[in-house]
Please model this.
Amino acid sequence: MPLRLPGGLSQLSSSLWESQSLLPLVQSRQFGIKALTTPKPSRFSIGPGLPVLESTSTAALRRKAYTLPLRSGAIATKKGMTAIFDPESGKRIPCTVLQLDRVEVISHKTRQKHGYFAVQVGAGWKHPKNVTKPMLGHFSVNGVSPKRHLYEFRVKGEEGLPPVGSSIGANWFQLGQFVDARSNSKGKGFAGVMKRHGFHGQDRSHGVSLTHRSLGSAGPSQGGGSRVYPGKKMAGNMGNEQNTVQNLKVLQVDAEAGIVVVNGSISGPKGCTVRIQDAIKKPWPEVKAEAEPVAEVEATATA
Amino acid sequence: MAALPSMRPLGCLRSLIGLQDAVQPQITRRFISTAYSPKPKRVPLPPNLPQQFLSQLPERLQPREDSKRVKVYPAPPSTRKVCKDPIAKVTESQMAIHDPKGERKALFDYRRNPRSVKPGDILRVTFKNGDPFNGVALSIKLRGIDTSVLLRNELTRVAVEMSVKVFSPNVQSVEIVQRAERPARRARLYFMRSRKHDRRSVENLVGAYIRQKRAFLGGNRRK
Model:
């Protein structure tokens, strides 16, 4: 039913109605439930000394600033493992050999445009025939050759963005500094629960038939809701997932051959792609002038 | 229900017409889809075409500019061509430090060097901290800088095995005390761990060797 003005108003003469409409406030009837008292302000969200709202992107970046590296990382290939003997103590140090091949800065991600600072780094070379046209355009605009691998390395601020097209060699890393290496672990295919989660399996005998390597129960019955809870450990694909090994010491650096030798092992098979960046749990390395990226590609592009 | 000829007397005429149609050869029938039409040749644009008319042409006929092609930049020099086997390079640099003359490598390269240590030989290894270890070489693992030899002996009537990394800077010297009487027929003499084939202690043989060496060197403590 449409709302109607009170009957008394409609009976008023037109001249009176016009004169009333010129008034700033017209008393009109209120509909619905009306509070008897004025609403009180909440006693929790008012007053001085309250913390600033932490759900903004600026606040998120501020929280992250402590753990974000100051400079970019590099893309390397795992070549295999060997050992190095420490000449003083005679101790054998197992090490992984990584090789950096044509690592270049492709583009930047900036706070203003993308919401965060990051360096897009490419490595290797891909035949232009096998590169899609949008990607080819991306490489072309930035003046670099088509790359096999592309990854982003987040950095703290604008100071950590090397010029686009500059190359990152093995001497980007210093002898004795610590790095984090992230790579995909070896894929194990579809694995059972014993191999994948370390379940104990079931008995060989005592009436067990055909379920010696399977999981026991997938959960409670009616009391638990008669359902399998999310995250239940079951058989499935194992391995081939990203793993980060932290705090690996750089033992050798060979800029000419692009070799970086780090202490210990790194996930993944030989030939896998490894991303190495300054370790976040160690003090940041002091960057020397010679470790600065070489801006030689820009010169060749203009020539 | 099929119509009987008596019901439709003129039906026979229809069959005659239909027969004529069927007799006509099928080849003469052609559809548009099968008709061959050569691809039309691209008509060259008239010369001195004013610029404002170009936009009226379909896109495929508009004169193509070379700038539409994506420019591909050449790749920088590759480090993979400089060094194809980084593992070998790291190993070589280590060998140059710990075995500059290549003597230790030749001593254990039993596949190529006939004068090298062979499985079954009795060795005496001296370490930098002064403790020697004697034993029968059960196996030699050739793994570059990680090359090692497995020695077996008996100390205080307890069988002891020790794997020695031969390029370790802690290894001061390796001496061959006694060659095997005849070359072993396998590379790994793990059967020597069984009670039947165990050589037991080799300390007597090594002691005799040391005494003989001292006599030969004229009582000098020099090795």
User: Anything to note?
Assistant: The two ends of chain A are 80 Å apart (CA to CA).
